[in-house]
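Notes from the pairing session

We agreed to fold both candidates in a single pass and log them together. This is the raw record for the first candidate, unedited. Please don't reformat it; downstream parsing expects exactly this layout.

Candidate A
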Amino acid sequence: MYTPVALLCRTPARSRLLRTKFMHAAIPSLSISGPAVTTSRRFSRLSRTSSVTSILKAVKDDGCVVIESMFTPSQISRLNKEMDAALANVSAGRPANANTPPLPGGIDPSVFGHNTKRLGNLPSSSAAFREDVADSESLHDICTGIFKETGDYWLSTAQMIEIGPGSKAQPLHADASGWWPFWSMGGKWTPEFAVNFLIATTDTTKANGATGVVRGSHRIKYHDVLDDATLGFWQFPDEQVEQIELKAGDCLLLGGRIVHRGEENKTTDEFRRLLSCTVISSTLTPEEAHPLLLERERARELSERAKKFLGFRELATTIGPDVWQDHQQGGLKRALGF
């Protein structure tokens, strides 16, 4: 998911986005602890049957991990068929949020990709998403492990991102930066509170825009660099951005702090599709209001796990009160009637 950097910091939003878009200078060390950024080794590649412990360790060590064949060919085929129809009605060069006003200077295409389409509200438009992604055994096992320090979790936003031929690389960013803990946490306790499952529904290659990741950037101490109003701590030279190629059905799981971007599609005829599925702690507010958007009759058909994931059940936290409650009726199941 790409959250426009103009929404994330304290200096005037529009001028900051313009500055950030056209800056591309390396910032020494960037308060990254541990080894210097290097391209001498590959990021971990595990399988759908790998233990949750090994997946969590890879995310902690590297900030991301590839889970190969997380989704089956039949699931991907079904999802793509639904996306073919939905994306046909989507305009390129715009964010998934239709309410986002155009950026100044007509730079929307350069920020969001002039030939890139983004589709949100997938629970409403895709049965494959509701049944195969929102109720994925692997996804929920991983999320249970990731969020055990803070409590339950729910879906923030799911977006299909199709990078078409000629689209340039998007600005570098970290997905968790849309929520305040990203900017305020110190170094003593830094649980993951937002992660992104990037699910490839087509093969992603270095040529067609495979996601680029900056090794070691999940260790940036953001609370030490807040005075850098230019967001210079997200500027890295191209040689430090490693592209991670995926086969259709693979998932690149990104921790919330690692710096990454969708890369340039240098092909003339390939459309690179990734389903971006951002999951957050139950203590935070989702980007999309799924319980208000998904029709009740469709929500009734969901498994209990998927109902909770999309906000049709109350959620527990490890610190503070449980959330999304109906105190008088003793739970959303009774209040909703399903």
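Candidate B (folded immediately after A)
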Amino acid sequence: MTAMSGPLLPAAVLWDMDGTILDTEPIWDIAMEALARRHGIEMTEELRLATLGNNAVDALTKVFDAARVPESGRDFEAEEATMVEHVIGLFARELPWRPGARELLDLIAAAEIPMLLVTNTQRDIADIAITTIDSGRFVATVCGDEVAVGKPAPDIYLRAAEIAGAHPNDCLAIEDSPTGAAAAHAAGVPNLVVPSQIAVRPAGKRVFRDTLAGLTLDELAGLYAAAGGR
């Protein structure tokens, strides 16, 4: 499928969720702050930004390191369960959309371009948010606990491209964080970055936009081409 101006559109669009489609990062901040306080420290801005977009193990490790929790005291399973319970409760209240995300989802769907949701969030939490977005928008959803290693490793994007039946370079990832952008880069997926809370450094196969609001199919095709797409 081609845009009217000529550049090709991607064979599939691989959407990040937290901070890209939904403004969930402030909700995760609440849970992370509670985790830090349980271990006797306050969540500094530096630590918060370091954990942004991380999978659960990486985020917990960074908090444990900051709190100087000894290896023998690092109960990843129990702490993750506590965080999951906390976040599920917060997600159940309200999940606000990021500007332009809903409209771009509808626009891409109308163009009959397959979309997949690619999130580091584990399945039991993600499913609550996916209900808000509507799972019917996506060919598939891939969560961080369904691959060997979550973002920033490439596994989750490689799996999404495989499900889409497309070469990674023929897809476009839409991300907001350094962690997610790094995962897309490692997988060889051209990446549109719309930063939410933290700046993302320029890199190969990476283009930027301040917001998804007002984005047209022609512009999407141009951004995909600029990111090194087919």
